Amino acid sequence: SDMEKGTYPHFMLKEIDEQPFVMRKIINEYQNENNELKLDADIRSAMQKTDRVYIIAAGTSYHAGLVGKSFIEKIANIPVEVHVASEFSYNMPLLSDNPLFVFISQSGETADSRGVLVKIKEMGHPALTMTNVPGSTLSREADYTLNLYAGPEIAVASTKAYTAQIAVLAILAVDTAQAKGLELEFDPMQELAIAANAMEILTDQKDEIEGLARDYLPTTRNAFFIGRSADYNVCVEGALKLKEISYIQAEGFAGGELKHGTIALIEDGTPVIALATQANVNYSIRGNVQEVVARGANAMVISMKGLEQDEDAFVLPHVHELLTPLVSVVPMQLLAYYAALHRGCDVDKPRNLAKSVTVE
Ligand code: G6P
């Protein structure tokens, strides 16, 4: 069953492996027999009515929100702000005339997010919760719910919920675009299916990624993740995974920000993991890699097919440029898993962390 590890040594590894199947489940759940998207009509009209979406979330769900912002802005043409739930109450932005709040929460129980939900409902604003637990508090108290269909996630470090959130955010963006009569230049569900296949190829390459974890992250105290554009969003999640379970001090940075501070931390042997999946920034991120290598960094480039160079450590299968986070995060999850495993850490139950934080 979903609650058992079966032959897996850890829930985290099982949940990483489930991701292609979760993608296919989501594709099925959100389409009718004519392969048309079937989203709740109320959600569709809420998305059509709003002039600005406010995404509220914490932790990994916040990182999925960053990816969702680019989908909703680029595909559905609606401005989006993404806020860390705990900060929103003190630093509430000026709201637009017709805000729509989208709460992203695997558990649907995070107190920081619920605090914002209670507040914005008092103000009379509409709320949509995207969650893996349909009957959860955030689901019950919001006006609308979108299910993630990832199945129970047991490991404290979130993996399949993140990719499920990204897929459902893409579907929400596409559905809104269709409702508004906007033209799409690609078949989104087909691209999602291609991404699911790519994820499966990656989960079959565990040995290679375990080797990279052994080579690049054996005894290091720190590690940096750099990327630009969509890759930057995945770098912050890759760094979070690594710090959560291996206790390596890790940070994700925008490639362009390196020179404004972080490059001071690069020493002989410092691991720098660079993502290169975006054609328009490939040249610039490669320049960043050269800068850190010149200062002694041990750079590992993870690129996408079509953009790869000979010295790259790992090449991802090609997927649609908007959907690269679904595939580029998989080696990040596996790197974190194997780094933690080799250090003897408790992968599924890292110190000081809880699966869902129900206190503010
Ligand atoms: C906790 C978990 C994280 C998770 C965050 C938000 O901190 O350890 O893995 O991302 O809560 O949880 P949620 O259930 O709201 O997505």
From TrEMBL:
Every SIS domain range: 43-182, 212-350
Reaction catalyzed: D-fructose 6-phosphate + L-glutamine = D-glucosamine 6-phosphate + L-glutamate
Localization in the cell: Cytoplasm
Molecular function (Gene Ontology), one example: glutamine-fructose-6-phosphate transaminase (isomerizing) activity
Sorted UniProt keywords: Aminotransferase, Cytoplasm, Glutamine amidotransferase, Repeat, Transferase
Transmembrane stretches, start-end: none
Catalytic residues as annotated in Swiss-Prot or TrEMBL: 355
Primary enzyme class: transferase
Enzyme Commission no: 2.6.1.16
Subunit structure: Homodimer.
Function: Catalyzes the first step in hexosamine metabolism, converting fructose-6P into glucosamine-6P using glutamine as a nitrogen source.
Protein name in UniProt: Glutamine--fructose-6-phosphate aminotransferase [isomerizing]
Organism the protein comes from: Virgibacillus natechei
Lineage: Bacteria, Bacillati, Bacillota, Bacilli, Bacillales
Residue span relative to the full protein: 241 to 600 of 600
